[in-house]
Specification:
Helix 2 links the parallel strand 1 (12-16) and strand 2. By secondary structure, the chain is α+β, with helices and mostly antiparallel strands. It has helices at residues 3-9, 21-33, 47-55, 82-93, 108-126, and strands at 12-16, 39-43, 67-70, 78-81.
Length: 146
Amino acid sequence: MLQRDRQQAGSHLILYDGVCGLCNRLNAFVLKHDKRAVFHFASIQSPKGRSILNQHGRNPDDLDTFYLIADYKSAAPQVMERAQAGLFVLKVIGAPWSLAGLVGFLPSRLLNFGYDCIATNRYRIFGKYDQCVLPAVEHQERFIDL
């Protein structure tokens, strides 16, 4: 399915570690730049986030993985994770961020190695909250786990 068709088929769901400083910064970035509001969010730690990951055969206890469910409301959602999920977000947001997708020609193994290096150290570098961060009131309708 083409990217344009995906954008029209329904919203995409970002599943993130709710206590991770980097993940919450990513959410703030997406909320700021996603002018069409095609992305929705749920923390992996929430009952809703855990349920969705279980439905797709993923481990909700794996907080080191960034997940994206493309067309999550459709009959044929597509699960992406790690580097692939991040590149998808940047492509859908559009220029100039979509230019990062040019690294997509690199092997997934290499892209995921870079992702894993960051994910393993993200709490130390970006901090960790004691509990999941609540979104600002103006963005709460985009968080399906509230």
